[in-house]
């Protein structure tokens, strides 16, 4: 009996080590994502091996477009059938299987797919993850690709850092006073709004448009590199659709997409401010609101972008460890910007409080809640 127990323990220890070692790179473990349809509750519940050990049907949601560089990896103890959106795909023999998520993404796009595994016996699924299998030579995970990946990240970081410095140098030569107004730390809280400031009068003219273009480029660089911290998932905000963590995405096309989307977003912000302020009869706050919005955003995005560029140069293969840091920083940034802009506009004090709160809710609070949803709940 003791020999049997010892043999059983050794078998499970050895098999678990084998299961762990055969995966070359595991990005996400999907064991906790499995679902079981409970007849008593008449709905899907989280699968637990101890409670649902006889389950013959296991379900899970998958977003292939979030992990296009990897595979869906399965280890089956029994033969099973694989369904996608309730449609039978194929019969799977026992053993290891891997499916290209890039191929699934091309077929199903950005929509999540509902996957089902069916077997005639329970406890048939031993491993499910997203990653690579060992000895899978079809994947570009060799040393040469790693060196190219590192080189491209560092090269782009150097080029974009130089481009940013040149942009600020040009603005300094064209309008030094405008630049210092945005960069001086002493003026961040002690705001002196002078109505002769050209940005209040002509937000999209002269040196102002030059600064706004440089500000847009700064944000594009930030979100461009932020896509490399997302562990194969979408980047924060909708820009993530165009910024994936692979070699092809490290191109000028991704940066150009980010620049265009942010530039359109800035104009849309100004248009939203103008429409709401005009409807509520507080048109005098339009340029002030837009100026403070850009100034506060720039004040925070500049150091965050420099930190991200430094990390891209120093630790290009550990950028994913900083994803939560930047995501939390953005959440705090947006909250501070909302409070600061609200205080500044409220100090004008020449309009009804109801108009003020209605205006602020539509122009600032609703976008803030949307940002937070995209950051933390998507």
TrEMBL record:
InterPro entries: DUF4271 (IPR025367). The chain crosses the membrane at residues 157-178, 199-226, 255-281, 293-313, 325-345, 357-377. The keyword Ribosomal protein does not apply. Keywords: Membrane, Transmembrane, Transmembrane helix. Pfam families: DUF4271 (PF14093). It comes from Raineya orbicola. This is DUF4271 domain-containing protein. It comes from the Bacteria.
């Amino acid at each position: 009996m003791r020999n049997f127990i010892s043999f059983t323990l050794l078998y499970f220890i050895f098999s678990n080590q084998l299961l762990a070692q055969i995966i070359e790179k595991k990005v996400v473990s999907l064991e906790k994502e499995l679902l079981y349809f409970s007849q008593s509750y008449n709905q899907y519940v989280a699968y637990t091996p101890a409670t649902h050990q006889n389950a013959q049907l296991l379900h899970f949601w998958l977003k292939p477009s979030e992990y296009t560089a990897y595979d869906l990896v399965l280890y089956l103890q029994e033969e099973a059938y694989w369904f996608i959106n309730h449609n039978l795909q194929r019969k799977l023999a026992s053993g290891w299987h891997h499916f290209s998520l890039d191929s699934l993404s091309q077929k199903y796009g950005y929509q999540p797919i509902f996957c089902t595994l069916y077997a005639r016996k329970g406890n048939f699924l031993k491993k499910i993850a997203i990653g690579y299998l060992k000895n899978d030579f079809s994947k570009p995970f060799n040393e040469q690709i790693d060196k190219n990946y590192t080189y491209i990240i560092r090269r782009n970081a150097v080029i974009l850092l130089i481009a940013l410095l040149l942009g600020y140098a040009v603005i300094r030569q064209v309008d030094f006073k405008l630049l210092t107004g945005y960069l001086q730390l002493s003026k961040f809280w002690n705001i002196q709004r002078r109505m002769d400031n050209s940005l209040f009068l002509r937000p999209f003219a002269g040196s102002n448009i030059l600064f706004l273009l440089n500000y847009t480029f700064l944000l594009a660089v930030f979100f461009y590199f932020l896509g490399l911290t997302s562990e194969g998932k979408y980047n924060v905000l909708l820009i993530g659709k165009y910024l994936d963590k692979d070699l092809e995405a490290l191109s000028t096309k991704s940066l150009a997409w980010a620049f265009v989307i942010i530039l359109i977003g800035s104009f849309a912000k100004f248009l939203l401010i103008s429409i709401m302020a005009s409807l509520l009869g507080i048109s005098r706050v339009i340029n002030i609101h837009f100026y403070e919005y850009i100034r506060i955003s720039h004040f925070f995005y500049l150091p965050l972008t420099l930190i991200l560029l430094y990390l891209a140069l120093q630790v290009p293969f550990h950028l994913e460890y900083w994803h939560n840091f930047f995501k939390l920083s953005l959440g705090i940034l947006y909250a501070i910007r909302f409070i600061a802009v609200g205080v500044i506009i409220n100090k004008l004090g020449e309009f009804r409080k109801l108009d003020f709160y209605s205006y602020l809710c539509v122009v600032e609070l609703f976008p803030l809640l949307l940002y937070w949803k995209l950051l933390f709940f998507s």
